[in-house]
Amino acid sequence: MADLLSISERIIDSGVLSEMPNRVTQELSEVADGLAVVESFSHIWGLDTGDGLVLFDASGVLTGMEAMESMRGWRTDRVDTLVYTHGHVDHVGGSGAVLADADRRGYRRPAVVAHEAVQARLERYRLTNGWNLGINARQFGGTRNDTMRLSPGKSGGKLGERFLPDDVAEPDVTYSNTVGMRVGDTEFELHHARGETDDHTWTWVPDRKAVFVGDLFIWNFPNAGNPQKVQRHPGEWARALREVAARQPELLLPAHGLPIGGADRIATVLDNTATALEHLVESTVALMNQGADLDTIIHTVSVPADLADLPYLVPFYDEPEFVVRNIWRLYGGWWDGDPSSLKPVPKARLAGEIADLAGGPLALARRAAEVADSGDLALACHLVEMAADAAPDDPAVHEIRADIYTRRRSEASSLMARGIYRGAVKESRAVIGD
Ligand SMILES: [Zn+2]
Q1: E strands within 247-370?
Q2: Residue 43 C-alpha to ligand 1 middle, in angstroms?
Q3: Cα(253) to centroid of ligand 1, in Å?
Q4: SS3 category, 410
Q5: What is the pLDDT of residues 83-107, one digit of tens each?
Q6: How high is the pLDDT of residue 57?
Q7: pLDDT band at 81, cuts 50/70/90?
Q8: pLDDT surpassing 50 at residue 433
Q9: Which of 78, 134, 168, 351 satisfies CB 3.0 to 4.6 Å to 389 for a cystine?
Q10: End-to-end Cα spacing for the chain
Q11: In DSSP terms, which residues pair with 183 in a beta bridge?
Q12: pLDDT for the residue 138
């Protein structure tokens, strides 16, 4: 059993990311008496109420069964209630394993509790199954050095043709804003918040001064910008963190990464995370109000350096620039402010014109390679993309394109950007015939 609180204490107090906080060990650690976590993707948290366990999240389909076995190495009591902190598949995908465990042990089915928007999310996942399988493959396809490494493990779960596994447990009990729950002697206060998702629940346990925050704190820059997913809510995310902080928790229990102990430490972490998000929202909205377009805003707004350097706000997963785009989308819509992009020509036509001016697609691609060699990979990507749009089947162009995106990927910090660049490399390799 690892002493998780002392690891998080070391990282936060030193300000140095000396160890990776997002561990997927599938092992259980007790964090306080009767309170334990299985570090997985996502974690399963268990609280022993004396009259059954309350679990927070079920982990994903690949990890749920093994994570539940780890939980059972700690307690064999009936699971009274399973709370979904939100409906992302890495949190609900293992619920089939939780229900199967109850069945096997002859226990009654645990009550599944979630915010009412979880239901609509599950329905949306069925509606957009192909889209979601595609983006997950891109987003998590290149996890070589990632902090949020997926561990398929020995669990027996497998990824199928369904983004949302068929055996996911639908919520039995839902609520709107806030709801109280009592299991055994323990009181729980469930609160709805929008942030990473529209269906988040954070749960305050007053007796223990503990808060289960789901993904409102993830040991990475907040995942409020994901380029391939539905709207996120950075401003409301910050507000939720402030509401959590107002309880003055002494234990912060996230669904990814390490738990954090100590009222002052938690207050600081919550304040800094909220402040970073508030800064992005306020700066973006101020520029929008001044009439700035999206191009100006994404190249102007950034996180203050003292916050960007914190070991729990590193953009390993999402990036502040993507959060800025989501703020723009939330308040301003999808149009970026460029009149030519409102009703564009097919991009191959524009690319063909530019390639002709440049002396052909290969000349344009070669210029892209020069620009890349000079160090401006972002500009090189624009040029080589046009070359490939102008000559989609030209292996020589795609050789250069694959090389440029390979380099761009290796310089990108976030898993989301790396996944998309890796997807581009794979496309070009398919044309080359590698
Ligand atoms: Zn998550």
Answers
A1: 251-254, 260-261
A2: 9
A3: 13
A4: helix
A5: 999 999 999 999 999 999 999 999 9
A6: 98
A7: very high
A8: yes
A9: 351
A10: 46
A11: 186
A12: 78
Residue 371 CA to ligand 1 center (angstroms) comes to 38
How many angstroms separate the alpha carbon of residue 86 from the centre of ligand 1? 8
| Rounded distance from Cα 21 to ligand 1 centre (Å) | 14
Compute the distance from residue 82 Cα to the ligand 1 centre, in Å. Answer: 16
C-alpha 346 – ligand 1 centre gap (Å): 37
CA dist 107 → 14, 46, 96 (Å): 46, 17, 15
**pLDDT single digits (tens) 208-243:** 999 999 999 999 999 999 999 999 999 999 999 999
The domains of the chain are located at 4-272, 345-432
How many helical (H) and strand (E) elements, i.e. helices and strands, does the chain have?
16, 13
Residues contacting residue 236 through CB under 8 Å, at least 6 positions apart? 193, 194, 195
Coil, strand, or helix at residue 63?
Answer: coil
CA 294 to centroid of ligand 1, rounded, Å: 28
Q: What is the mean pLDDT of residues 136-145?
A: 58
How far is ligand 1, taken at its centre, from the CA of residue 19, in Å?
A: 20
Please tell me the distance between residue 4's alpha carbon and the centre of ligand 1 in angstroms: 19
**How far, in Å, is the centroid of ligand 1 from the Cα of 230?**
15
Ligand 1 centroid to 343 CA: how many Å?
36
Encoded tokens for 43: 């974690």
Instruction: Report the distance separating Cα 182 and Cα 207, nearest Å.
Output: 12
What is the whole-number distance in angstroms between the Cα of residue 256 and the centre of ligand 1? 6
Of 3.90.930.1, 3.40.50.10860, 3.40.50.1010, 3.60.15.30, which CATH number belongs to 4-272?
3.60.15.30
Residues 6+ apart with CB under 8 A from 270: 217, 241, 242, 244, 245, 252
| CATH level 2 (architecture), domain 345-432 | Alpha Horseshoe (1.25)
d(CA 137, CA 262): 38
The model scores a pTM over 0.85: yes
Distance in angstroms (rounded) separating the CA atoms of residues 186 and 50: 9
How many residues are there in the chain? Answer: 434
The predicted model gives 136-162 an average pLDDT of 52
Distance 93 CA to ligand 1 centre (A): 11
pLDDT value at position 159? 55
- Order across the sheet with 251-254: list the strands: 178-183, 186-193, 200-205, 210-214, 251-254, 260-261
- In this structure, is the dihedral angle defined by the CA atoms of residues 146, 413, 328 and 382, taken in order, positive or negative? negative
